Amino acid sequence: MDCLIDHIVIDVRDRMTEGAEAYRRLGFQLTPMGKHSLGSANHLAILGRDYLELLGTDVPGGTLRPDIAPFPVGLNGLVFRGYEAEALAAGQQARGVPVQPATAFHRPADLPDGTQQDAKFKTVRLDRSAAFDGRLYWCEHLTPEHVWRPEWQAHPNGALGVARILLSVRDPERQAALFRRMFGAEAVTVTSDCRAMLRAGDAVVEAAPHATVAAELGAAAADPAGRGDRMVLLGLRVRSLEETGSALRINGVPATGGQGLLRIPASEAMNATIDFMA
């Protein structure tokens, strides 16, 4: 089946205002806060065909949705594009993938033209024990016109789309085996240095050993906060690194340069390491 990134979730728990301020400093235009029928709140940074979601509650000290309550602040949701959610769930179950039944929900969306419409979704989630210490699922958009609005897709940092998701794992082959069941054997490759690579359209999902990830990220790494296998880095394609660097300097955000990228330490991005990539 097709493998495309739909969105990436950064949990902010009850620090929604802080999270929104942090990502605006990083140069993202955020949508107005939305409130799900499931009881959570979010802001989105809409990109070309995917997006980032800041997810939590808008009430400081408030109760979190049960499925996100166990997780710390930081990268937590790897979400693939879904279609025909009920058939997708049945197909994945037939492949031996432990998925839950499709769930339908919605949130009112305040649109740029001043109107309000319901954005409607269906999700198919994997059991928590099946993958890394986070959430892995598909999202079917029943009203994509209320999400991908041109007015929301322009960002001062020039972000265009998701390019790389890095997982830090004990056993990359275990993650590779799950991805093969989900998307087929041809979707996954394993490199000579034991990285499992899942091609997802223009993006790649990479599962690498803990030691390899620690060596790559160094002081820019997120606090694992008690997690084992976990999401650690989000890479985003940008129009130009010069444009991105200018936006970061204006807002006083520290970044380190590498070959073809600017890296934001997790301390500046709600416990998520961010790479802006040429």
TrEMBL record:
Annotated Gene3D superfamilies: 2,3-Dihydroxybiphenyl 1,2-Dioxygenase, domain 1 (3.10.180.10)
Domain Glyoxalase-like stretches: 5-181
Highest rank taxon of the organism: Bacteria
Transmembrane regions listed in the UniProt entry: none
Entry protein name: Glyoxalase-like domain-containing protein
